[in-house]
Amino acid sequence: MNLEYKHLLPADFDPLSRVWIYQGSRPFSLSEVLTVEDMLNSFSQQWHSHGAGVKNFATVFFGQFIVLMADETHTHVGGCSTDSSVAMIKEIEKKFNLSLFDRQTLAFVIKDKIQLLPMNQLTYAVENNFINASTLYFNNTVQTKKELENNWLLHVKDSWLAKRFAIPAVVS
Predict the structure, then answer these.
(1) How far is the CA of 19 from the CAs of 8, 29, 66, 170, in angstroms?
(2) Dihedral, 7, 8, 14, 20 alpha carbons, nearest 10
(3) Angle, to 10 degrees, between the axis of helix 30-46 and the axis of helix 79-96?
(4) Of 25, 105, 35, 115, which Cα lies nearest the Cα of 65?
(5) Where are the alpha helices (DSSP H) in 8-63?
(6) pTM surpassing 0.90?
(7) Positive or negative, the Cα torsion across 96, 101, 105, 107?
(8) pLDDT in tens, 12-27
């Protein structure tokens, strides 16, 4: 699985541009991705804050994650404009019958595929070596472009999961 994505991010956005990641409860089909991309493009063209257009980027990564980015060096994204983006994500949820707001389900790369795991099953997954310190984890808590570039896809040992769930280091 090709996990390269940084080259797809807009180079002209400030490193502190705000980022929102919405993880699908299942992958989108190819036709769904095309439709979601159309919906995102339509939203992007009309996204405004306080009457000014928001410099933004919106796409689907890995067929499962919707990433929104707003460069606030141009226009601050206020509450109403954030609400409009949430409304658009809820519209996608409804149209495709999936969840995009479940923060209790984590995404990992296991056997070259994105696998979802409810947080309440993480201890079991670690104990049975489905997840270990070197497993790749999608850290959807990133909030800026810089964090998206550097901290979105991490080894479990480098994430908050390592301490919270006492995940042992890999023994060489």
Answers:
(1) 14, 24, 10, 31
(2) -130
(3) 160
(4) 25
(5) 30-46
(6) yes
(7) positive
(8) 999 999 999 999 999 9
For residue 172, the model assigns a pLDDT of: 47
Where is 162: in which H helix or E strand?
helix 160-164
Q: What are phi and psi of 163, to 5 degrees?
A: -80, -45
DSSP-assigned letters across all residues of 57-113: EEEEETTTEEEEEE-TTTS---HHHHHHHHHHHHHHHHHHT--S--TTEEEEEETTE
Q: How far apart are CA 133 and CA 156, in angstroms?
A: 5
Structure-token pair, residue 123? 């201890």
Q: What is the pLDDT of residues 40-66, one digit of tens each?
A: 999 999 998 888 889 999 999 999 999
Asked whether 120 and 165 are in contact (CB, 8 A), the reply is no
